[in-house]
Write a structure and sequence with these properties.
Layout lengths: L14 E6 L2 E6 L6 E4 L8 E9 L3 E14 L4 E12 L2 E12 L3 E6 L7 E15 L2 E11 L6 E4 L12 E4 L5 E2 L8 E9 L8 E7 L7 E3 L4 E8 L3 E15 L5 E9 L2 E12 L3 E8 L8 E16 L2 E9 L7 E7 L9 E3 L7 E2 L4 E2 L1 E9 L4 H5 L3 E3 L6 E5 L4 E7 L5 E5 L6 E3 L6 E9 L4 E8 L1
Antiparallel strand pairs: 1-2, 2-14, 3-11, 4-10, 4-12, 5-9, 5-11, 5-14, 6-7, 6-10, 8-9, 12-13, 15-28, 16-24, 17-23, 17-25, 18-22, 18-24, 18-28, 19-20, 19-23, 21-22, 24-27, 25-26, 29-30, 30-33, 31-32, 31-34, 34-35
Length: about 450
């Protein structure tokens, strides 16, 4: 039996975040293409679909209402089932909120459709109880039933609109989730309030680095391989690394990947300094279909962006970023795009044995962008006016920070740039280093007024 998941195939919308005071919403606006995806329930078969949204760091979102557009006949929607799911490995995961048999509080004609006997309606729901969502990616799953038992379709948008979310998923009865590689987005608005958590957010000068490229001329195979390219943190700067974006050529897509930040050793990837296992992309943007030499089908160009659960702090120097994409059914072609444009001095590399040995891709760099914030590790003018010093150095247990200013925080880094200890409450300007192994450390003292200074300290 043919399972009619799509009424008419259509593609991506725009996912946004708007906030006025404490009121905020997550929404995808309609581009009025009269397309939809089957979410009919209550009959012989059970269809549903899911679309994603992201709660920003430093926020807690309290959801209260939901609106969404459907393509249907004249029969009204009798009830809607809503699930809120947490993202797991790039897909809808565990259900964290369930609302069944919700009766719409309003059903308004949005526009007259070009499809015979169907028009697009805006359906409004009030949740019986509000619920809180901290930072992270979530999915809204919908099922709906019409009074006359006919089919109802959740409106979707077209591929030419840039989007800020993942590709959406569908479900038939109790089958596993299907999708994540069709380039469309569902039309909805999730309404509520946003409150600050008080969590400190990265600050400093905006910073990006990487290798640009937009010709989509080819790429290196990602499945069952480790791919890496280098980047440089400038001298005198500490990088707070928050986002990583790559350009891909694919049929299918990257559901999730393991990403490593490695030390540069002999101009090749060395020791792993930070690792993020099985992380799903936060956003995925479609840039059309392109022919690839030697491959019978046009493939999709898509930018894939990952956000870290916690920012990574890196001291000046050269690093490699490595990505190991998880294989997934229906992924016939998956490449990290390359460019012959000059990059950060070194060629891109590939490993077939999990990073034990590396081979160069002579003359080619992967297309990627690293984003974050930089802060000086040499101090600022206010610090210079109010000298800061540390003693004793070398130190056995207690390091004293000598300054007239109040200290907001002290972060201790090892030579690889990893933060090994963070102290937010100093007693008498004393830093306890007794639990650290012998060796060299960098102690970054951050003042209440925003100034900072970093010291090289030897632990004996």
């Amino acid at each position: 039996m043919k399972r009619n998941l799509l009424f008419v195939l259509a593609l991506s919308g725009f996912l946004g975040f708007a906030q006025t005071g404490a009121d905020c919403n997550y929404s995808v606006s309609s581009d009025r293409t009269s397309n939809g995806e089957n979410i009919t329930t209550g009959g012989s078969f059970d269809y549903s679909a899911a679309t994603d949204f992201d709660v920003a760091p430093g926020k807690i979102f309290t959801a209260k209402k939901l609106t969404f557009n459907v393509l249907k006949g004249t029969s009204p929607v009798s009830y809607v089932d809503v699930n809120i799911l947490k993202e797991t490995q790039g897909m809808p995961g565990d259900v964290i909120q369930t609302f069944t048999n919700l009766v719409p509080v309003a059903q308004e004609l949005s526009y007259t459709s070009t499809v015979e006997d169907s028009d697009v309606y805006k359906i409004s729901l009030d949740f019986p109880a509000s619920f809180d969502l901290p930072k992270g990616k979530y999915y809204i799953q919908l099922k709906a039933a019409l009074a006359d038992g006919t089919s109802v379709f959740w409106e979707i948008n077209k591929e030419t609109t840039r989007k800020l979310g993942r590709f959406d998923f569908t479900k038939f009865d109790s089958d596993p989730w299907f999708g994540g590689f069709s380039y469309y987005d569902h039309v909805f608005e999730l309404i509520g309030n946003c409150n600050d958590t008080g969590e400190e957010q990265p600050a400093g000068s905006s910073f990006t680095t990487g290798n640009p490229g937009n010709a989509h001329e080819g790429g290196v195979h990602m499945i069952w391989t480790s791919l890496a390219d280098d980047f440089v943190v400038p001298d005198g700067q500490k990088l707070t690394f928050t986002k990583f974006k790559i350009s891909t050529l694919q049929l299918g897509n990257i559901k999730y990947a393991t990403i490593n930040i490695r030390r540069s050793e002999n101009d090749l990837p060395g020791e792993i300094l930070h690792t993020f296992e099985n992380v799903g992309p936060t956003t995925e943007n479609f840039f059309g279909y392109h022919p690839v030499a030697g491959f019978p089908l046009d493939v999709v160009a898509a930018d894939v962006e990952f956000d870290w659960s916690q920012p990574v702090e890196l001291l000046p120097g050269r690093y490699f970023i490595e990505i190991i994409a998880a294989p997934f059914p229906f992924t016939d072609y998956q490449r990290w795009e390359v460019t012959p444009n000059s990059g950060a001095d070194l060629d891109s590399v590939i490993s077939f044995d999990g990073g034990e040995t590396w081979e160069s891709n002579p003359g080619f760099n992967y297309v990627f962008e690293i984003s974050g914030f930089t802060n000086s590790i040499l101090g600022v003018s206010d610090v210079n006016k109010n000298p800061v010093s540390v003693f004793p150095n070398p130190v056995s247990d207690i390091l004293n920070v000598n300054t007239e200013k109040s200290i907001h925080r002290v972060i201790i880094y090892n030579p690889a740039g990893q933060a090994v200890k963070t102290i937010t409450e100093l007693q008498d300007h004393k830093v306890d280093m007794s639990g650290l192994a012998k060796g060299v450390y960098f102690v970054n003292a951050i003042m209440e007024n925003g100034g900072s200074k970093t010291f090289k300290v030897i632990k004996k």
